[in-house]
Amino acid sequence: MVLGALLIIGAIALVYWNQKEDAAAKDSVAQIVPQLVQQIQESADANADADILPELQKPVELLTEEDKKMTEVEIDGNLYIGYLSIPALNMELPVMSNWSYDQLRIAPCRYDGSIRGEDLVLMAHNYNSHFGQISQLVIGDEVFFMDMDGKTTCYAVVGTDILDPSAVEIMTAGEYDLTLFTCTYGGASRVTVYCDLAK
């Protein structure tokens, strides 16, 4: 009985801790997205009359690693590459340039790839305020990414999957233009959403 009671207490504590982290993550998103939107608007205004960069005119297979680099902006000591909008889930999420476990508590992060390389992979915790609801997305749902240069890229969901945690090469193979993933509860698998550029 004592062991059972301890397990119940532990489960309650875990649920409480997850809810507390989710609420903190939601607050972070609410503070960061408006700052990103403002900086993107300022950048777009400053570059309104600029010519299209030559690397944006090249086919993706001819782009160099330098061409694929995404503009980064620092907010509160973290680098961001833009924000993600998922209308079907009523979500707008900032996206950090690189990932660490500490950064994942704040916002979704780039795991690999880039917009220009047509192989962007984004990861986030399964908080409800981050990627906890992406399993609800269905084929055809739109996903938008606004980069720090003011360019909006529209994607459409083309598939979903549940992957083993070791199946990294599937997500980073470049088969899809955008991949979103998060852990299942308990962390045994990865909920993965594949998107391609909308036609």
Total number of helices = 5
- The percent range for helix content is 25-40%
Beta content comes to: 25-35%
Main beta sheet: 9 strands, mixed
End-to-end C-alpha gap: 60 Å
Question: Based on DSSP secondary structure assignment, what is the total number of beta strands?
Answer: 9
Cα gyration radius (Å): 18 Å
Helix and strand composition category: alpha+beta
Q: Tell me, rounded to a whole number, the average pLDDT.
A: 84
Query: Order of SSEs, N→C?
Result: HHHEEEHEEEEHEE
General form = globular
Uncertain runs are: none
Description of the structure:
The protein is of the alpha+beta class. It is built from 5 helices and 9 strands. It has helices at 2-46, 54-57, 65-68, 101-104, 168-171; strands at 73-75, 78-86, 91-96, 109-112, 120-123, 142-147, 152-163, 178-183, 190-197. Strands 1, 2, 3, 4, 5, 6, 7, 8 and 9 form a 9-stranded mixed beta sheet that branches. A hairpin with a 2-residue loop joins strand 1 (73-75) and strand 2 (78-86). The longest helix is centred in the N-terminal third of the chain and has 45 residues, at 2-46. It is globular, with a radius of gyration of 18 Å. The chain starts with a helix and ends with a strand.
